[in-house]
Amino acid sequence: MENIKIGASKIGLGLMGMSDLYGAADRNESIATIHEALEKGITLLDTGDFYGTGHNELLLREALQGKKRENAFIAVKTGVLRSPDGGWIGMNNRPEAMKNNLAQTLQKLGTDYIDLYQPARVDPNVPIEETIGAMADMVKAGYVKHIGLSEANAATIRRAHKVHPISWLQIEYSLFSRGIEKEILPTIRELGISLSAYGVLSRGLLSGKWSKDRQGAPDFRSFAPRFMGENLDKNLALVEKLREIAEEKQANVAQLAIAWVLSKGEDVIPLIGARKRSQLQDAFGALNLELTEADLARIEEAVPAEAVAGTRYAAEQMGMLGVE
C-alpha cells in the first residue's frame, strides 16, 4: 500500500471503537482485525492512552506480539483525563503530564518509541508552545518520531509548527464535515503538514447502513445532534442521494465516502474505525474506486456542505474543536 512521507500507510485503522464509546467489542475479533489490516498493508494504527482508560493500548500490545515493531506505525493521542468509572473529567497538556503519559504508554505498548504522539485536544490552560516544547524534548530523546496535533485551529497550528515541525493534523473530515476546507486545510498544506482524517463515515451515517429506527442507539451517538429527530431524517436523505451514485459506480455508500476523502490529495490519510474484519472491506474497496472530476462534482452537488443537519458533537464539546 502506498505510503506518504511520514511513513504511514495511505489508510489508517482507528482503534478507539474496539475499547470505547460504541459498546462492547469482541476482543478476539478486534485483534484479528488488526492482524488483517497489517497483512493487507494498513500499517497505521491509531490509538489513545485514554481509550477505554488504557484498554486500547493493552489490546494493541497483545495484537502486535510476535510482529516486527517496524512494520507498524503507531499513533497515540494523550491529554484527556478519565475517572475510574470511565467518565470524562477534563484535559491536561502540561509538559510534565505529556512526559508522564508517554512513560506509561511505552510500558503499556511494550515498545521503545512511538511513531507519532499528539495531544488529543488543545488545552486552553496550557500554551501550545509549552506542550509542543515538551514533546520536542521527547523527539530528541528518541522516544517519539513525529509530533501531531488534533482538532487545532489554523493559528494554533502555526504557533506549534514554529516550536517543532508538526507532521500531521488529525481532525474530522468527511462529506458531512467540511469545515476545514476554508482555512485549516490551506494552512497545513502551506506548512507541509499531512491530514489525518477521522470520522470519514460520520460515525456510521455515511456507512449506508444507518436507518431511522436506529435512533437512540445505546452509545454516544444517542447524544449527537446529527443522529436526532429531523436532523437524522435530513441526513439520511442525503445518504440516499449518495447511494444512487455509488450503485452506478458498482460500489456502496461507505466506499464512495472513503474514496471522496482519498481524492482530496496524497497528503490526506483517512482513518477507518473498523471493529470487525468485514468492516475493513469498505476501505480496501475504496482504494480501488476511481472517481473522475465529474463524479466528484456530482457527489458534492448531492451533498452540499451546508445541507448537513446538526453539529458533529453535542454543544458542550463543540467549544473544544478547532473548526466550528
Automatic annotation (TrEMBL):
- Which Gene3D superfamilies does the UniProt entry name for this protein? NADP-dependent oxidoreductase domain
Q: Which organism is it from?
A: Metabacillus sediminis
Residue ranges of the TM segments? none
Q: Which domain of life is it from?
A: Bacteria
Q: Which InterPro entries does this one have?
A: Aldo-Keto_reductase, NAD(P)_OxRdtase_dom_sf, NADP_OxRdtase_dom
What is the protein name given in its UniProt record? Aldo/keto reductase
Keywords in alphabetical order: Oxidoreductase
NADP-dependent oxidoreductase domain residues: 10-302
